[in-house]
Amino acid sequence: MTQHGVDLLLVLILASLGLSALAIFLSMSRHRRQHAPSAMPPSDDVASEAARKVLREFEKNGQSVDAALVTWSPETLRKILADELPDAQVIVVSNREPYIHNETKDGGVELVVPASGLVSALEPITRACAGTWIAYGGGSADRRMADRNDRVQVPPGNPSYTLRRVWLSDDEYQGYYLGFANEGLWPLCHIAFTRPIFRESDWEAYEAANRKFAETVVAEARNERPIVLVQDYHFALLPRMIRERLPEAIVITFWHIPWPNSEVFSICPWRERILDGLLGSSIIGFHTQFHANNFTESVDRFMESRIERADAAISYGGQMTLVHAYPISIEWPVELLESLPGVEECRTRTRERFGIPGEAKLCIGVERLDYTKGVLDRFHALEELFKRHPETVGKVVFLQIAAPSRGTLPAYKQLHEECLHLADEINQRYGSDDYKPVVMVAEHHKQADIYELYRAADICLVTSLHDGMNLVAKEFVASRDDEQGVLILSTFAGASRELLEALIVNPYDAAMTSDAMLQAITMGADEQRERMRRMREIVRDNNVYRWAGSMLLDAARLRKRGELDRVTVSDQPSAPTGENVVSMFERKQAVGFR
Ligand code: F6P
């Protein structure tokens, strides 16, 4: 028999298997419907695994884009949008805005790009999609710079998308952002042993702020079917609110921080409301599979839902939500690198600027001043290094850049004081008139300045106690086109799942981190090159365009499924019968979405 004949036979066998499985499923589901508990939505009937598998195979074979083989760039994103989601309007929603306008002392206006992984990831995406970005207008000159519709065209000087600012009163900001989001959800989701604080008034403000953003999304939507990219833990209720107002929207929610196990999550007094809100999404994304699993477990435990593990989907209230891991990343190549000086010049400039002796190894840490980042822990590791290897005293300098963050909250104030105190102690114990082992600069730095530091450093330490991804690790790698420099990376940062050639440490173990520091200090140029080269390949291939592109492709498949379902329903002589509803649901289940 010819190859063509074999293929044909295989297709026929699969098709007949599929049809019999479907027939078995339909008869089983009819039976099940008669016995189903009435509280469950009709679409929650149990599906036939066999039928699903066969049909999923068909769908897979018919996929037009294989994510793994694509070169991801802004162009790829634009093509996905044009081909797969024509006319779709992309709306991004985040608390933090990508461009903040602040008043200066002399009455002028300065532009600040905030220290935020979310912003560095989403900005190139929104530019590529020419979308609309809705965010809280927190800058002191934000109102002055917005038009009468509260919009600004950005990036300044080369506008490619619209920033729509949302205004919040001081009380709203206090309750929603500082209170519920950052004193409640933030410590709840990070294992950093800071107690979450839950206040009724904060919850009310959180709900009200989510509603305000939902209204803004509706106002900005040009039609009934936008693609809304909801960002982060500030907006757990927003997906449901959007779904109620724009039922045909595709809502992709990305949770940028870890999701705790269901036992930890259970302490949140509004846990069901949060899950219900998030399940208004078409897709919920996490950085790692581990966090996606934790979320699914929480839903399984607290909500009347059905979990379709094989499809990574949750069926709740008659609606399907996909729960997937999409590891976030950065743009590649990094545009601003083009305007930076060479590595040698960056080294010289940085050493002069911070008074670092020429022969000393330069370790850097760059982050928001946050208790989840393990800043104190890396200072302890440095001390440990000095204790165990006194010969390193005088030969290592640690430069810590810490952007002030959430500074009015007690936990953050306390951390700031502790960091300054410990840095002082180490400097007194091990420093001298012309040698300061720890240089701590608690100031906001521009992205270009940060990249200059990355290029100047011998070692970059990312020692988060817990982190969704951590983009500093990826930025450091991207900045090193000289293929030199060593990354020390916490095993509790999502980035450690990808950057396997980093020196991976447990930041709670100061001895282990100090060993890694010693290894880094003494590592030869060849080994550095080998490790860095591999990590650069990973960041290049899994760049931020791939992150967004994978979600958009999944969204496109969802939309196509929805359209197919509408056709199926309108083909029917009357309103869908129970059986039609089941077969629609079954097909959604059966084809899978990836
Ligand atoms: O890490 C979570 C996160 O929301 C990031 O996505 C973002 O980079 C950071 O926190 C910013 O925090 P804030 O906006 O509170 O300064």
Q: How does the SSE layout of this entry go?
A:
Elements: H1 3-35, H2 49-61, H3 74-84, E1 90-93, E2 100-103, E3 109-112, H4 117-129, E4 132-136, H5 142-145, E5 151-154, E6 161-166, H6 170-189, H7 200-220, E7 227-231, H8 238-245, E8 250-254, H9 262-265, H10 271-278, E9 283-286, H11 289-302, E10 306-308, E11 313-316, E12 319-325, H12 343-354, E13 361-368, H13 375-388, E14 396-403, H14 410-430, E15 438-441, H15 447-456, E16 459-462, H16 471-479, E17 486-490, E18 503-505, H17 510-521, H18 525-541, H19 544-571, H20 578-591
Parallel strand pairs: 1-4, 1-7, 4-6, 7-8, 8-9, 9-12, 13-14, 13-16, 14-15, 16-17, 17-18
Antiparallel strand pairs: 2-3, 5-6, 10-11, 11-12
Helix pairs in contact: 1-2, 2-20, 3-4, 3-19, 6-7, 7-8, 12-15, 13-14, 13-17, 15-16, 19-20
Bound molecules: 6-O-phosphono-beta-D-fructofuranose.
Output the radius of gyration.
Answer: 26 Å
CATH superfamily of the largest domain: Glycogen Phosphorylase B
Biggest sheet, spatial arrangement of strands: 5-6-4-1-7-8-9-12-11-10
Report mean pLDDT, rounded to a whole number.
87
The poorly predicted ranges are 1-58, 61-65, 572-594
Number of helices: 20
Q: Proportion of β residues?
A: 5-15%
Number of strands: 18
Indicate the overall shape.
globular
Structural class: alpha/beta
